[in-house]
Queue: 2 jobs
Job 1
Amino acid sequence: MRRKLAAGNWKMNGLKASLAELTALAAAPAPSQTDRLICPPLTLVAQAAGVSGGIAIGGQDCHTATSGAHTGDVSAEMLADAGATSVIVGHSERREDHGETDALVRTKAEAIWAAGLTSIICLGESLAQREAGETLDVIGTQLEGSTPDAATGANTVIAYEPIWAIGTGLIPTLEQIAEVHDFIRAKLVARFGEDGNAIRILYGGSVKPSNATEIFAVSNVDGALVGGASLKATDFQAIIDALDAA
Ligand code: PEP
């Protein structure tokens, strides 16, 4: 039985005052079947960990090394030291803005494990790839290349995030979400056996309170990675409630 996961990605948004949103979330009763995670910008990770109560805190990226001459980067060990328990890797904005490859994402995922944290590995097709009928090929290749061999339900979460749905208000049809999530599940089970059944698969891309319930009813959707709607406690709480009730 997989626990559900509501994960918020604040991206490059949030000043100290934004911690009030986290405090508001932390004041709500803990859901029974759902884990909660907020990934604030790096500047807020340590402070967030101090006020988040039962809500886990994560990073949005990390370097492959534990320390060294890498100006501007942060290691998984540093994130762990600041109170993080998970790190997002391979977000499409990192893949696009910083040229991150599947091989790099895989190495980062291993660095995250080495620090004792969970890797949230993001996959997603572009609109051109979807329109060309390449979605499953693209997702299969990214999944294979970005996920290290020792993945388990405890150390890995997969997030399917169609690039064209991120921040656009567009979402795939429920059938399209089911097709990709079922495909990812089958690939995980084929590669990892029973561990493949324990790895949670999140959907990400314009999840809102208004569409959460229908998305969470889709097979093999174990939760969501939420961008914009995680910035406001009331919106994210509504998504948490919809997930816990699903
Ligand atoms: C994201 O960037 O991970 C994301 C899903 O963003 P949004 O919810 O704003 O589409």
Job 2
Amino acid sequence: MPVIAIIGAQWGDEGKGKVVDLLAQQADVVVRFSGGDNAGHTVINPAGEFKLHLVPSGIFSPRVTCIIGNGVAVNPAVLIGEIDTLNERHVDTRRLFVSDRANLIMPYHILLDGLEEDARGGKAIGTTRKGIGPAYADKAARLGIRAGDLLDKEAFLERLHHILDAKNKILTKIYGLSPLSLDEVYQQYCQYGERLAPNIRETTAILEEALNKEKLVLLEGAQGALLDPDFGTYPYTTSSSPLVAGGCLGSGVSPKRINRILGIFKAYCTRVGEGPFPTELKDATGNMIRERAHEYGTTTGRPRRCGWFDAVAARFSHRINGYTGTAITRLDILDTLPTLKICVAYKVDGKVLNDFPASVTTLAKCQPIYEDIPGWQTPISHIRQFNKLPLNARNYIKRLEELISCPVNLICVGAEREQTIQKSPVL
Ligand code: GDP
Ligand code: IMO
Ligand code: MG
């Protein structure tokens, strides 16, 4: 059995949670591999409606083992809260494991994320202020504390002492704050360690065993390709890689094991936070989409910026991920519109640009060149077969397939698990 990577193909919030929950019904293992509780994955299934930030969206399928991989930045307080909430709602979390190599979000990461954002003023990134950037910066600087560190209290105290000294210098000397207490942070994180000890594992061994037994493994992406720190709209990006390559790094699954790469696209585009967004609609249509789709951040509640489907960005996303298929979500949101627009190229400084530029200064100057597609103006949420969709909806999907040069496997026409059309098999 294969590994399927489920990858956010735009700026996040494409509906990864819904698709993972759907596919997890056939899976054995689901692994989150990047990001932290900046992610918010909504799942609506017979157990209810859930907003997951760290726990993989496969947790609702009883035989699935869920792994929070080494590439995830884990805030232990958030994870414990999420486990408790799931348990209160009778969701079994005994099959949930956290990689001992996963870096932890520490209190100073959250403080520094906020302080750095405030210091950026008009140039703020619009982060979720969950400590993500500072945590991954510390990982690269070899100043991270990992989940496994909590299991050896003596060594943890020594390492925390050394790191907190350095962080307190920044907090007090640069930002004029009071220092964090070593004892308080230590005691707090020891408690988290005791609570999470049964879940902390060497997770690559679990994965290897599953793969050797031909089990189906899903890699659950967080964020989206255009938020990747290398290929996204840098510096308006996140700090870990949401790409399929990040899926290998963040889980320990070899690239040669990955059989399918499913790119999750919304039928339009959204973005939370700052940074250029060529097809953004700052008009009544954008507001209509936001309200109809309730486009407000799952994690921060911020209104999401809404715009037309950007095929230039989509082609780039396909180039750097190599999707074997796509899922188009939220097609139903476009039901009422008389005409839809797809951005097929950009115009910048009088020239046509077919490629997604590296520079945000260039991207900010890009004017979308649109193609009009007639709308279907009829509800589609009840439809389960591609050939039952209105002709104009089928034409819209077919045009997306042509423009991205990738087959559409799934079409989502509502937030619930079964509100999905399989146009062609994912596997
Ligand atoms: P994720 O971060 O990629 O998992 O996506 P989010 O959960 O942040 O945002 C996607 C939103 O779209 C959630 O509220 C989902 O319940 C919802 N959703 C997913 N697919 C569909 C769909 O096809 N139609 C509608 N109307 N909502 C959908
Ligand atoms: P899911 O997994 C949408 C955005 C933030 C901000 C930028 C950097 O739900 O799709 P960060 O806190 O990561 O340093 O913020 O990235 N961002 C997301 N946008 N969906 C997400 O996750 C996001 N995670 C981070 O809004 O613009
Ligand atoms: Mg989300």
